[in-house]
TrEMBL record, chain A:
This is SigE family RNA polymerase sigma factor. Transmembrane segments: none annotated. Belongs to the sigma-70 factor family. ECF subfamily. CDD domains: Sigma70_r4. One of its GO terms (molecular function) is DNA binding. Residues 21-79 form the RNA polymerase sigma-70 region domain. GO terms for biological process: DNA-templated transcription initiation. Signal peptide: none annotated. The keyword Disulfide bond does not apply. The keyword Transcription regulation applies. It comes from Kribbella antibiotica. The lineage of its organism: Bacteria, Bacillati, Actinomycetota, Actinomycetes, Propionibacteriales. Residues 103-155 form the RNA polymerase sigma factor 70 region 4 type domain. Keywords: DNA-binding, Sigma factor, Transcription, Transcription regulation. Pfam families: Sigma70_r2, Sigma70_r4_2.
From TrEMBL, chain B:
It comes from the Bacteria. It comes from Kribbella antibiotica. Keywords: Membrane, Transmembrane, Transmembrane helix. The lineage of its organism: Bacteria, Bacillati, Actinomycetota, Actinomycetes, Propionibacteriales. The chain crosses the membrane at residues 38-59. This is Uncharacterized protein.
Length: 174, 199
């Protein structure tokens, strides 16, 4: 190992971990999986660090590794649970409304194909332009656009996000 | 009307602190991968030496012909069906199972795109279930992937380790494993079972 480069990499990991963890949470829906995902992706990146064009590419490369890992990951393990595609109706007004909303959004996201979900997160959470998303996802800009469109349409089927607005997309009144 | 970006930010507003110092955790993983790769290289080197010794032992003189090795029996499975080998180990009352799957399958699609085939063969599966003959079953699904419309094939193998299972009492238990991969007309389920003796 090169101590200088390892130190630089360690600083990147410690400095950007929380931001990457947030991104990972939106990809996986679980904090502990998000942490695992970030660590897995960073480990992969370390082994390919010599092929990086610049230190600035590190974060972009890490996000690519996270997206690829999460879309391929075989982690949706279950034990005695019955998965369902139909979400139960929310119980109505609740003092825990904010928490419920978060839960509903995550459950709505979970119904999306993983690459569509990743595309939406990159577009609307990371606020990346379509060309950069295409680079991260390894697809064309056209595919990014159609994934965003399909993903938003699917999200709008759910009560919480029925009237959702998103920059660059036509909003649907709830 | 909701704004998607605001919703996303709300969802991730309170991340828990990392369970370990991130850089230390990542470098621990890196060291582990390096050790595993080094061990893998050593195994390959040992196997290569053993092969050379075995072949050399069959050469009696400079006129000897190379040994003719019988080809392994070929079992042609249909696309989507995989051969399954289960190797159990028992430690006390805990059963462990290494499941090796190999075969040719159709590549599933996710969001209209084929999954990359340069990762683990297990990523090609659309799900598995494992029952230990007692207690809760184990299992997993392939996520939001689909066999529909796939025409691309890939051949591969993988050894997957089930989560260990603790038995409450001695006995002979049948462990069943079923896994689904994509075939020409959809999911194809392959199954295998073995007996596990808990003393």
């Amino acid at each position: 190992m090169d101590p200088g480069r390892d130190q630089e990499f360690a600083e990147f990991v410690d400095g950007r971990f929380t931001a990457l963890q947030r991104f990972g949470y939106l990809l996986t829906g679980e904090w502990h999986l998000a942490e695992d995902l970030v660590q897995t992706a960073l480990t992969k990146v370390w082994f390919h660090r010599n092929s990086l064009r610049s230190a600035n590419a590190l974060e972009s490369y890490t996000r690519t590794a996270m997206v690829n890992t999460s879309t391929q990951w075989w982690r949706r393990k279950w034990r005695g649970e019955t998965p369902t595609e139909i979400m139960p109706e929310p119980a109505g007004d609740s003092p825990y409304g904010v928490v419920d909303d978060r839960d509903l959004l995550l459950r709505a996201l979970a119904t999306l194909p993983r690459r569509t979900r990743a595309t939406l997160v990159l577009r609307y959470f990371e606020d990346l332009p379509e060309a950069e998303i295409a680079q991260i996802m390894g697809c064309s800009v056209g595919t990014v656009k159609s994934n965003v469109s399909r993903g938003l349409a699917k999200l709008r089927e759910h009560q919480l996000v029925a009237g959702i607005s998103a920059p660059g997309m036509k909003a649907v009144e709830s | 009307m909701n704004d998607l970006q605001t919703l996303f930010k709300g969802v991730v507003a309170d991340p828990p602190p990392p369970s370990e110092i991130p850089s230390q955790a990542v470098f621990a993983r890196i060291r582990k991968v390096r050790r595993r790769r080094a061990a893998g290289g050593a195994v390959l080197a040992t196997a290569a030496v053993a092969a050379v010794v075995a072949i050399a032992g069959n050469l009696n003189s400079t006129n000897s012909q190379p040994p003719v090795l019988a080809p392994p029996p070929v079992v042609q499975l249909p696309v989507g069906a995989v051969s399954i080998e289960m190797v159990p180990t028992v430690v006390g009352k805990v059963g462990k199972m290494a499941v090796t799957m190999r075969g040719t399958v159709r590549v599933p699609l996710s969001g209209g795109d084929y999954l990359p085939t340069d990762n683990s063969f297990i990523d090609m599966s659309t799900g598995f279930t494992a029952t230990w003959g007692q207690g809760e079953p184990d299992g997993g699904d392939g996520g939001a992937i689909s066999c529909e419309g796939s025409t691309k094939e890939t051949t591969g193998a993988v050894t997957y380790h089930l989560d260990p299972h603790a038995y409450p009492k001695p006995g002979t238990y049948t462990v069943k494993f079923a896994v689904k991969f994509c075939g020409p007309t959809g999911d194809v389920t392959s199954t295998k079972s073995v007996q596990l003796v808990i003393k």
